[in-house]
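Notes from hallway chat w/ T.B., transcribed later so I don't forget. T.B. wanted the structure written out for a chain they're using in a teaching module, and asked if we could keep both sequence and structure tokens in one place. Agreed to drop them here.
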Amino acid sequence: MNNRMYYFYHQMHTYRKIFRLCSIISFLLFTRGLQAQTISLSPYDTIRVELTSSDGGCKDPTSELTPLYLFTRMNAKWKKYYEAWNRLKNAVYVTYPYAKAASRVIQKINGELAGVTNRRKRKAIIKAHERELRQEFTSKLRNLSVYQGKVLMKLICRETGNNCYEILDEYKGDFNAVLYQGVAKIFGSSLKQTYDPNGEDQSIEILTRQAAMYYGY
């Protein structure tokens, strides 16, 4: 090998050593910089939060936000809505005890009529309870408005599983059921109205559950 080639290879070998040394130095400086960043945290790098244990045993970070209160004037639409809600709430709370009482009496009558086939004895049992109901509730029910009466019929259907027309037909006969149905029609109501807790009567169902807790049922 001549001197020129020897010099060339010697230079290449030297450059390789220098390149490797620089690479090692750069790597060490880089990792040290990462360690420094990891160790020297500022007060805003970490936010401490509470942990909430889930059913699966996992602990999830939890934090509470400051409540935000928004106030605005009630427009005519919402004012009408709350007026209707309060009217319905008042009707449910007033009539719910009567519906519960009606349910208890009907259950009691059904228990006494079980096995009784004699028509006169059945009528006597029904009339006895009818007199009891009249004495206890006639004066109270007379103070109800037409609207409260409609709600009461809904609640009786809820508690007994039968609408008022079916109850009258069972205990007082077809004639009385048709007669009272005609009277109800005059006041814009119906004894045949049913109860749908998941449909049109959902609001009544919500208020009835509240009333049941209030009265301790």
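Follow-up for T.B.: Confidence is low (pLDDT under 50) at residues 2-8, 34-39. Might be a good example for the class.
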